[in-house]
User: Which sequence fits this backbone?
């Protein structure tokens, strides 16, 4: 028997480890009249694993206009449905958000069934600031738009979270370095899977690592925010340079290293630091 009539459930599914499926997710997927899935073949495997026999229909980026309208009609007629993506939370860098909007417009109740999510799993293990953060997801594919988004994000003080495909990882790390400077970052790789790994380092170190071995698997990139320093040439003041240089000295670095680290942190040349500190 269905839990409730005319309800759209947004059901989280595992991002790698099937044991992350929740009891409630299994229950709801069993009880709804039908499941709208991003990839029915992929979801069929999940359903088979949990012995769920609910009918599946396809709802993805390509058919969402038509399939969305049909799903809403069925919900209005009293059926209940679950929306799932290939992994994690539907509507997070995955189809689902448009369906939610349609459902709300049609006065249909939308209920979350929470569970695995790659971005938050990466963030909580990153060691970076978790109090405020911006989830960016995938950057735009065209170089120009991608750089525009990064420029816009550059002064943000909060931690930044990106999704990236392995074959774009190196390019994205380089773009981040170019725009935001040599920030601290964490790559969360293959979360919840056998080869789960957290790779910590500054962007330059991470780029070097992947110059040696090609990235493989799924990645979330977590990058520290701009902190108190606005990493923007026009905004780097004399005060910033002196303060940061002094902080590195206080931390025990010699003058040369402190100059190098200050330049890296502010994304400016070493000569600029030298001129500011010594050439008065
Ligand atoms: N809806 C999903 C969620 O809630 O996390 C995200 C789907 S998005 C299409 C896929 C991207 O999420 C991947 O390219 C990768 O950046 C990230 N991702 C998904 N699963 C992951 C995993 N197990 N480990 C690391 N990153 C993962």
Assistant:
């Amino acid at each position: 028997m269905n839990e409730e009539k005319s309800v759209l459930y947004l059901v989280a599914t595992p991002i790698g480890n099937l044991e992350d499926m929740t009891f409630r997710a299994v229950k709801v997927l069993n009880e709804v009249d039908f499941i709208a899935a991003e990839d029915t073949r992929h979801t069929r495997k999940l359903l088979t694993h949990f012995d769920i026999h609910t009918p599946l229909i396809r709802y993805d980026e390509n058919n969402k206009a038509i399939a969305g309208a049909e799903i809403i009609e069925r919900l209005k007629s009293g059926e209940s449905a679950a929306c799932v993506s290939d992994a994690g939370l539907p509507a997070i860098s995955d189809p689902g958000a448009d369906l939610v909007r349609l459902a709300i417009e049609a006065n249909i109740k939308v209920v979350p069934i929470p569970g695995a999510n790659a971005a938050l799993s990466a963030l909580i293990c990153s060691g970076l600031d978790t109090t405020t953060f911006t989830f960016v997801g995938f950057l735009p594919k065209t170089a120009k738009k991608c750089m525009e988004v990064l420029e816009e994000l550059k002064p943000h003080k909060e931690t930044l979270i990106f999704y990236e495909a392995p074959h774009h990882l190196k390019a994205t790390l380089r773009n981040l370095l170019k725009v935001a400077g040599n920030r601290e970052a964490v790559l969360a790789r293959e979360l919840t899977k056998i080869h789960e790994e957290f790779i910590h380092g500054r962007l330059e170190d991470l780029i070097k690592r992947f110059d040696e071995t090609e990235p493989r698997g799924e990645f979330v990139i977590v990058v520290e925010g701009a902190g108190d320093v606005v990493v923007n040439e026009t905004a780097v003041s004399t005060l910033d340079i002196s303060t940061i240089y002094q902080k590195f000295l206080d931390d025990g670095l010699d003058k040369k290293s402190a100059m190098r680290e200050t330049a890296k942190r502010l994304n400016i040349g070493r000569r600029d630091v030298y001129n500011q500190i010594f050439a008065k």
Notes: The pocket of S-adenosylmethionine is lined by residues 15-16, 85, 87-89, 92-94, 117-119, 163-165, 188, 190-193, 218-220 (CB under 6 Å). Confidence is low (pLDDT under 50) at residues 229-235. The longest strand covers residues 159-164.
